[in-house]
Request: fold
Amino acid sequence: MTSKYLALDVGGTNIKYGLIDRTGKLLEKNSIKSPHNLNDFIIKIQRVIDHYSKIIRGVAFSIPGRIEHEKNVIHGGGSLPFLNGLSLSNLFRCSVPISIENDGKAAALAELWLGNLKDISNGAAIVLGTGVGGGLILNHQLFYGTHSQAGEISFLLNKNEDISYENLEGSSGSAVKMINKITRKLGLDDLDDGKAVFSEINKNNRDIMPIFEDYCRNIAVLIHNIQGILDLDCYVIGGGISSQVIVTETINKEFDKIRNGLPIIKTTLLRPKISDSKFKNDANLYGALYHWLLEADENMQNKRSIV
Reply:
């Protein structure tokens, strides 16, 4: 019988969760709205865990913030600041092991495990959502850095004359903010109506295309800057909006405009591949589970070495 695991992707807007087996087959998927305080967060997550508790071997979280893996402690919490300093292992009643991975790193792990970074030596996952998540694959391994904060793209500043939250990449690169801006331009009542927004984008609505193209150019500039430092083979674009083909297409177009506009860049730096992530908006679920499996294997090896 195949082992089953509960994976949860905790985001600033929604909490997605799914039942996945050890081979990476997604058996069930659902979502709930993200709460705005700790008490509601505990209640909502506990209900999900209780629902699956009798059929799972583990619970795997993908969550924003820097993760201190030794204690499963979250630092920061991204758009869920009430999680700062907490260990999820201590918040829930659960009879199976719990693991936690940063959301951007989970996306990279998913693509490394079964996705579009599987055969890549050096690459990155960029997740476009409430903020901008990132995970780096170097020498075919997830790179954590000295303090487990490598790939924290949301904290990059893109203007040096105004050091503010609005000029952090997590704000200027927010897909949610881009959609909100376009819905206002279209006069829609629902500011989060991404379906309506992309319906108009795919129709090439000239009233809103400059907003969308500016957004994609921002991501293209981000990729260019990372590429100048790390020289990666491939970047995969994830997050909810990555299911729209036009997103990666436009990022590629804007990336080429940058290179063509400055010949010294084009003649000096080789172009990396920029593609969709295989798992798109589900990447964090798969990556959270892969982290759980890697952690379980490491714990098993440590026990064997002690014996």
Observations:
- Residues 283-306 form the longest helix (24 residues).
- DSSP finds nine helices and twelve strands in the chain.
- The longest strand covers residues 14-21.
- Residues 54 and 216 are 44 Å apart (CA to CA).
